[in-house]
Write a structure and sequence with these properties.
The protein is built from five helices and 15 strands. The chain is an alpha+beta fold.
Length: 229
């Protein structure tokens, strides 16, 4: 039905030039076709608990490739209920560091099955996690949405994913995500880091010593670290 869907999209734009269209795809092999159907491309990998969480970053990268970098890519993160906080944070920030331009959380059901509620509506722990994530992303958004100097990177072994971003003339950040269930030691070179910069946690008071523009730290399973200077 691709040709039919494309004709509907084209007709809509001919009739209304003021509203962008948006679509979600979960089929990577069809991303190049689906990217032609809307102004905003979104992807919705739901890996937990049956697949590696890096499905999130892989879908984001493939979507950007499919759009040729000419359309924004959004990420729909699962929130079905029962996702541990570490995994929920990891999935969200994997989307962020792979340059999602928006994050949506999808609860899948929010109804009841076998007398039990299904979805984030019935999961106070998950609600608290997402509320905290929203507050963090609100703080980071001036830097995340500033394309000047933004740089994404992934460790050679594919385990640690990161993003450098900066506010226009303001705070600079580096975000690091451990995409695995392992405890990792990370030694990250940050060329943008000035020798005299005081590095602190973006959402805490802990300080981190930088040597030769490198940050050395420990990352727990699925842990996310954000630092600013």
């Amino acid at each position: 039905d691709f040709d039919f869907a494309k004709s509907l999209s084209d007709t809509f734009h001919q009739c209304d030039a003021n509203h962008p269209t948006y679509m979600v795809s979960c089929t990577p092999r069809l991303f190049p076709q689906h990217a032609q159907l809307a102004d905003i491309m979104a992807v919705d990998p739901y890996p937990y608990p049956s697949a590696p969480l890096t499905a999130v970053s892989e879908h984001a990268d493939l979507a950007w490739k499919a759009t040729l970098g000419e359309k924004p890519v959004w990420q729909v993160v699962q929130s079905f209920g029962g996702e541990p906080e570490a995994q929920q944070r990891c999935m969200t920030y994997l989307a962020v560091v792979h340059q999602a331009r928006a994050i949506l959380w999808y609860p899948w059901d929010d109804g009841k099955k076998n007398g039990k509620g299904v979805g984030m509506k019935y999961d106070p722990v998950l609600q608290a996690t997402v509320k905290k994530l929203c507050a963090e992303l609100r703080t980071l958004s001036p830097a995340l949405l500033n394309s000047n100097g933004r740089r994404a990177f992934t460790a050679a072994d594919g385990k640690v994913h990161g993003l450098f971003c900066a506010e226009n003339g303001g705070a600079q950040y580096v975000i690091l995500v451990n995409s695995t269930s392992e405890k990792l030691a990370a030694d990250v070179e940050v060329p943008e880091l000035k020798e005299a910069a005081g590095v602190t946690e973006a959402f805490g008071d802990a300080k981190l010593e930088a040597k030769a523009r490198r940050l050395s730290l420990q990352l727990g399973a699925y842990e996310v670290k954000a630092y600013k200077w």
